[in-house]
Amino acid sequence: MTMAAQLQFRDVTLGYDRHPAVHHLSGEVAPGALLAVIGPNGAGKSTLFRGIVGILKPLSGTILTGGIDPKDIAYLPQTADIDRSFPISVFDFVGTGLWRRTGLLGGIGKGARREIAQALVAVGLSGFENRGIGTLSGGQLQRMLFARVLLQDARLIVLDEPFNAIDAKTSADLLELVRQWHGEGRTVLAALHDMDLVRDHFPETLLLARGKVAWGATPNVLTAENLAEARRMCEAFDDSAAACVVHDDASEAA
Amino acid sequence: MLYDVLIGPFTEFEFMRRALAAVLALSLGAAPIGVFLMLRRMSLVGDAMAHAILPGAAVGFLLSGLNLFAMTAGGLIAGFAVALLAGVVSRATDLKEDASLATFYLASLALGVTIVSVKGTNIDLLHVLFGDILAMDDQTLLVVAFNATLSLTVLAVIYRPLVIESVDPLFLRTVSRAGALAHLVFLALVVVNLVNGFQALGTLLAVGLMILPAGIARFWSRELTGMISIAVASAIVAGYAGLVLSFQTRIPSGPAIILVSALLYVVSILFGNVRGVVRQLFTAPHLEA
């Protein structure tokens, strides 16, 4: 039985000002996969995620999202661009996760309010409903963002370094949510740096270093050779780099 | 005595009643917009836009006098032209949007003053620059009320994406394309409210009834609904008190209204509930948790 891929990268190059950050990546993510994306800083993890959620257009190649609506993707960026001085309560902020259902003018009724409250309970933030978002600690903020992802009820969830600068207890709580999403058959991608965490909880891993170094079952990817190769990745940003020409058979023959 | 000063002018003179109705409408329209300008760190963008729309409003003024329809249309065209040009230049070159906006609004202001001074009289120029709420006729009052109603209604429609775009723009971009549209519509509302304030406050001070009440509200509330309500209330109070001040003294109505707002602002800085100066001086002991 073959299942249509949830995510398909077809020779994707993503970058900025013509400089590639992810170079000629191809591969597939199956529906319901729990995939860790690892690699050194500058390897292109965040860029890849920005491409998946559609806020960065590929320089070449295509990313197919298995026919799901862009609104059916929940994205947690690495450095959330949140104005924490804005006067909005935790409850209202988390409620924005209902956008797909409410849109511009849709009401937020009793049922929706109950869902928001339940999401806050699930991330351990009950009692914080009326707090301004500016009063939260880093860990509480991350819990709040997870609550919003929970409310988005998305089929594809993309988490960019979700456990960075978060204490062990918070990480463990939030990881439990990730495992729950996986159990519900959602496709989850997470950029991570903690190899032990990847080994213990993520069945599949993509090791990225601008290009794909290895992709497959986590034990096969996290080998000393692969990791050493990724570390050798050059972070060069060459202003005078030549245009990239794909070496297909014809051009190699020429 | 007190009745003669505070209420007498409005029972006695129709133009004062019209002026009062106009400041009520202006406050309801402009103050909520001001709160969003402030929260989006765009306070000075409002000021720049007030200057940028001058040539359009001036052309409207010269073609049909102090007709708010013509001035609003002209102002909207000029405002959008400057906002779009500034946006295009900052995307196409290395110039940042604020620098680009600053250059365009100055050019636009110079053009506007030139148009008025070449084609009109000095009285016209003074009128456009400083307004005269006491000379408001019924038709103008209806336009002011219409614009304020339009502004409130449209703000209600774009409220949700505007709030989300202010607090977490990246999130809105991933779930919807409403963010860019909400921003543009919001800029249009800024222009509509600025032009709306022309007759009462003049081009230079029209932005005052947006920004000062918003600044006042920041010192009295920590949440958005509260801020908007307080901004509207303080704009109304300043509008009323400014009219009384203008009637009793010879201060023109526009500066009088803005000066009263400024006074309320200073009082708020000193005694405001939310991090006001005095409150910070006399802090209660810290809490246990």
Succession of helices and strands of chain A: EEEHEEHHHHEHEHEEHHH
> What is the ordering of alpha helices and beta strands of chain B?
HHHHHHHHHHHHHHHH
Shape of chain A: globular
Q: Provide the helix percentage of chain B.
A: over 70%
Number of strands of chain B: 0
User: Rg of chain A, please?
Assistant: 20 Å
Radius of gyration of chain B: 20 Å
Mean pLDDT of chain B: 88
Unreliable stretches of chain A, pLDDT < 50, 5 or more residues?
A: 248-254
Number of helices of chain B: 16
Globular, elongated, flat, extended or rod-shaped: what is the shape of chain B?
globular
Point out poorly predicted stretches of chain B: none
Lateral strand order in the biggest sheet of chain A: 5-6-7-3-8-9
Q: Span between N and C termini of chain A? A: 41 Å
Largest interface: A-B, 28 and 24 residues
